[in-house]
Specification:
The complex is a heterodimer of chains A (114) and B (113). Chain A has no helices and twelve strands. By secondary structure, chain A is mainly beta. In chain A, strand 7 and strand 8 form a beta hairpin. Chain A starts with a strand and ends with a strand. Chain B has no helices and eleven strands. Chain B is mainly β and 113 residues long. Chain B starts with a strand and ends with a strand. Classes of the chains: A mainly beta (114), B mainly beta (113). At the A-B interface, strand 6 and strand 11 of A face strand 4, strand 5, strand 9 and strand 10 of B.
Chain lengths: 114, 113
């Protein structure tokens, strides 16, 4: 079945460092791909998405490109801030119906220090 | 901004007891979901709900689980006889076609002792 694999955390970076969180998926075909973020005490929030190969999703300085050749959707940010400290979840979804479920990875905790 | 709310934030219960987890989805959303995350593991889909019936459920969602929208605003997940392995964070989500992606609540941490 479908699955999403993320790099294990926690990832600890100094402010203004470059961030990469790896995500790869296993699926037959080309699902939509997502990154969700969870700040402490809050729900999962959609950060960005890409619906087809070679699409780049971006939001709040974060980017991820849908790479079908490597089945990857790595999250990057050029300069992280303390406020980016959160748990990041990679997910896929098949757009076969309006109630389609999300399939998530385990999440990667990012901690940014001054 | 509208948000999904969940209560309680943390529930502790003894094995074999029934628990009800509550969610208030965004008011004009039509699709509702429950997911769970056992500590250190993946966020897993449990069930989706539309038009007062289950749309899809996972293998995890066995006869011990049920969902209900009792009053047009709340969306509940009931576990009839909890097991130790039901200890997890449970997330509710809601969605309306054409209004973005699924919106998630903050989660309820269920601890079964």
């Amino acid at each position: 079945g479908d699955s999403v694999t993320q790099m294990e955390g926690p990832v600890t970076l100094s402010e203004e460092a470059f961030l990469t969180i790896n995500c790869t998926y296993t699926a037959t075909g080309y699902p939509s791909l997502f990154w969700y973020v969870q700040y402490p005490g809050e729900g999962l929030q959609l950060l960005l998405k890409a619906t087809k190969a070679d699409d780049k999703g971006s939001n709040k300085g974060f980017e991820a490109t849908y790479r079908k050749e490597t089945t990857s959707f790595h999250l990057e940010k050029g300069s992280v801030q303390v406020s980016d400290s959160a748990v990041y979840f990679c997910a896929l979804r098949w757009d076969t119906g309006t109630a389609s479920k999300l399939t998530f990875g385990t999440g990667t905790r990012l901690q940014v220090t001054l | 901004e509208p948000e999904v709310t969940q209560t309680p934030s943390h529930q502790v219960t003894q094995m074999g007891q029934e628990v009800i987890l509550r969610c208030v989805p965004i008011s004009n959303h039509l699709y509702f979901y429950w997911y769970r995350q056992i500590l250190g593991q993946k966020v897993e889909f449990l069930v989706s709900f539309y038009n007062n019936e289950i749309s899809e459920k996972s293998e995890i969602f066995d006869d011990q689980f049920s969902v209900e929208r009792p009053d047009g605003s709340n969306f509940t997940l009931k576990i009839r006889s909890t097991k130790l392995e039901d200890s997890a964070m449970y997330f509710c989500a809601s969605f309306r076609q054409g209004l973005g992606e699924q919106y998630f609540g903050p989660g309820t941490r269920l601890t079964v002792t």
